[in-house]
Amino acid sequence: MTLSRAVVASAAAITLSTTLAVTGLTTGPMAGAAAGRDHGGPGHADRHDTVRFQTFNASLNRARAGELVEDLSTPDDPQASAVAEIIQRTRPDVLLLNEFDYVPGRAAVDLFRDNYLEVGHHGARPIHYPYAFVAPSNTGVPSGHDLDNNGTVGGGNDAFGFGEFEGQYGMVVLSKHPIATHRVRTFQTFLWKDLPGALLPDDPATAAPADWYTPAELADVRLSSKSHWDVPVKIGRETVHFLVSHPTPPTFDGAEDRNGRRNHDEIRFWADYASGRDYMYDDSGRRGGLARGEPFVIAGDQNSDPADGDSVDGAIQQLLDHRRIMDPLPTSRGAVEAAARQGGANAAHESDPRYDTADFSDFPAPGNLRADYVLPSRGLRVRDAGVFWPVPSDPLSRLTGEFPFPSSDHRTVWVELRL
After folding, report:
1. In the chain, where are the structural domains located?
2. pLDDT digits 0-9 by tens, 137-147
3. Whole-angstrom distance between the N-terminal and C-terminal Cα of the chain?
4. Is the pTM of this model over 0.85?
5. Which of 72, 247, 249, 364 lies 20 to 30 A from 317 at CA?
6. Strand order of the sheet with strand 171-175?
7. For residue range 379-405, what is the model confidence (pLDDT) as tens digits?
8. Virtual CA dihedral for 85, 387, 314, 378, nearest 10 degrees?
């Protein structure tokens, strides 16, 4: 890096990284662009009056603690290179990366910037993010309880969020614009039971309702499978709250549907937060949701399709139908082509495949789904939106491909706003 970075630690034990601001040009995805060009929406290249918010489940998680740092310590990891090139082609200004293992001291984030993002790939221009936010994740954090009720305590299913080690499947926010570090809020430890009307899982073997977890377990079980972050980004005179999370997949459970119900309530948390509800408390003890009139962008792999897949009915509609939230409906030609070519579960889907963002198993299920979202608050002006999913004839389809994917089974999603 040519710019220095400083680490700021808060009382909530979150880790921040900031540096001097730099300006960057923004371009974005558009199916059919030639190789070597910015894969950008029409008219966006070299504009400074718009800001691109983007989410990408980059699958930069690894099987053991420390492995991500090892992989990013050299510029030779092919998957990290593909992920970096996608980011360079789409050129977001503010970016959430899901499934980026949390490493205390921000070592992994700095290595990814130094060795991948700030190094051009196959003709794509390097991209610089002087501001970053990272914080601990619930994944892999032992709960001390038998949360899956299999008779033993320990392992990923008994952690506060599924993970084989602490921080696996974490997340990071990268930004070209300053992050208001003193105003960041994290909700890692907010308890599921403290969500009013929580859809707590029920043990189908008993007559009692919502009794999958014991009272002692409910006193400890956290709502967020990773965390929920309110990251205020200062863009000129405006501050936009980047509300980011990664709800648990609504599967890998049993008849109690503990993951499906948790996914629903993790999504609901942002709906209530955007409404200014006052029940939530952050990791520093501050209570309440977002102040009325504050602009925001909700982003992340929500693991919920409006009509298909395994999520609880109406889960993602809590955001899509919210009176304060807009859905820009980003699309791609590549998703339509993939659904038709891959067949299987896709043939029975109700959702329009042009909105899909994830290339999942087609036989027997779930098929491709819309799982990843960038949802701005009403009042912000949407200029453009898209999903980076090139059609096979596009040379850049080498970056997405099919299983085993060169980058991720998710596609990056962006929304361009004029502030």
Report:
1. 6-177+303-418
2. 999 999 999 99
3. 29
4. yes
5. 364
6. 6-9, 15-18, 131-134, 171-175, 94-100, 50-60, 413-418, 381-387
7. 999 999 999 999 999 999 999 999 999
8. 100
